[in-house]
Design a protein that fits this description.
- The protein has no helices and 10 strands.
- The protein has one domain: Rieske Iron-sulfur Protein (3-layer Sandwich).
- The strands form 2 sheets. It has a 7-stranded antiparallel beta sheet with strand order 1-2-10-9-5-4-3, with no helix packed on it.
- The protein is mainly β.
């Protein structure tokens, strides 16, 4: 799906689709100015990330959207972030799609997260780093 440029608030945003175009727990790939961008919907929010794992450059758009086990006390298991974690297709490293941070944190760098906004049913993305 190719994005359409829209000027808004003096920064360049791209219309990447309608909210209903994006399924929960599934990565959609859009192209913005020649860049592949992974897009994930969680409820009425949309997150976008670079198609480049900070570990070894794996194509993150080929990853999976999952949840993860969180740190907890002995004999206690806590599953969280369901639908908010992208797992690298090569080595299984996991990143939070809201912040880009490595789940763990195992990798000292972050996955690049793009700024997104939903207006009505339109979803926009800019190539700027999202505020986390």
């Amino acid at each position: 799906m190719a994005a359409e440029s829209v000027a808004h608030k003096a920064e360049r945003e791209f219309l990447i689709g309608q909210l209903d175009d994006f399924q929960s727990n599934k990565i959609a790939t859009v192209e913005i100015e020649g860049r592949k961008v992974g897009v994930v919907r969680k409820d009425n929010s949309v997150y976008a990330f670079a198609n480049h794992c900070p570990h070894h450059g794996a194509p993150m758009c080929q990853g999976k959207i999952v949840g993860t086990m969180m740190p907890s006390n002995p004999d206690e298991y806590r599953f969280d972030l369901d639908g908010l974690v992208v797992r690298c297709p090569w080595h299984g490293y996991e990143f939070n799609v809201r912040t880009g941070e490595s789940v763990g944190p195992i990798i000292p760098t972050r996955l690049f997260i793009y700024q997104t906004v939903v207006r009505g049913s339109d979803v926009f993305c800019s190539l700027r780093r999202a505020a986390t």
